[in-house]
Design a protein that fits this description.
Blueprint: H1 4-26, H2 39-43, H3 47-57, H4 59-69, H5 87-100, H6 106-117
Length: 126
């Protein structure tokens, strides 16, 4: 961009919009599935549901993270998007949302449960 003022205005607008989307995701009035850490929500967890929720409730936030993670994401339309293909993107989004609101912790709980059941440890063996 040739105009620094225009670039700054666009960046500011995008940041405001992303903040609004994250506020909607973290809202208790219309709770996100990432907020629900019950046994049933953990048993019925799916990356597809997380991807769909991010894409519908926070499309700009989602597209920014996708642009950072997948260089071909800007060439795809939402109709050709495969929501199961990017669990790392959903993990990153959920960690960022957990930083904003500690109750948004379903994905970290799922990951820690999988690691515990898989008998991982903090000790590295040679």
């Amino acid at each position: 961009m040739d105009s620094p003022q225009l670039k700054e205005a666009i960046e500011k607008k995008i940041c405001v919009d992303i903040s609004k989307e994250c506020k909607i995701l973290c809202s208790t009035a219309n709770p996100s599935l990432l907020r629900n850490v019950t046994k049933d929500s953990m048993l019925n967890f799916s990356w597809k549901a997380v991807g769909t929720e991010l894409e519908t409730k926070a499309p700009i936030f989602f597209r920014c993270i996708m642009a950072a993670a997948d260089p071909t994401s800007n060439t795809r339309t939402t109709s050709t998007f495969d929501p199961v293909k990017h669990p790392g993107v959903y993990t990153a989004a959920s960690i960022l949302l957990k930083k904003r609101d500690k109750a948004m912790s379903l994905v970290p709980y799922i990951i820690s449960t999988v690691l515990k059941v898989g008998k991982t440890s903090k000790t590295v063996r040679q």
